[in-house]
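[agent] plan:
  1. take the single chain provided in the ticket
  2. run structure prediction with default settings
  3. attach structure tokens to the ticket
  4. add a short note for the reviewer (M.T.)
[agent] executing step 1
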Amino acid sequence: MIVIAEGGRRVAVRADEVSAAYVGVRAARCARSASPGPGREVRAVVELSRAFGGVTMRALLGAAFSPDPQGTFIVFEVPFGEEMGLGAVATCASELGPPLVAGMPRDFADAALDGLAGDPAVAALPAGLLRVDRAGFHELGASEMAFKLVGELLGCVVDALLHNRDPRTVAQAVGRAW
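[agent] step 2 finished; step 3 output follows
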């Protein structure tokens, strides 16, 4: 596990967090052209805590990448449930604070997908499916911005793992850019 702290920004990167596992009833999806070359199965979970305007944004997102050697596209998928409500039990382990509520509310799925899929002009991942299946949120600190940032971070960490680069270096660079 990797924990990075710089000022009011903290990031945790780990291989998995089973307490964040969830199943959505619907999914936000998009596809982009894939980069040439083979992929391999990888999994990563990232979490952020960022002080912003008197509020601390908190979100956790994890995904598994499954390669498709015959494919030409990378498909990003973010399953989600109902809209966020208050009073849910926080059972999702957190490296950066108190437990989070496991799951992906409808409110944040599109923002997570936007961050995860990134800019289409940026280098693409190999052909396959990158499916989010771990998520956690703080009822007061979750926001579209938090999930867009954590989605961006997750996409960068998965890319680093697929290309045998150090996820710590990548996470530090992304965290500093916030």
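[agent] step 4 note for reviewer: Helices lie at 106-117, 144-162, 167-177.
[agent] ticket updated
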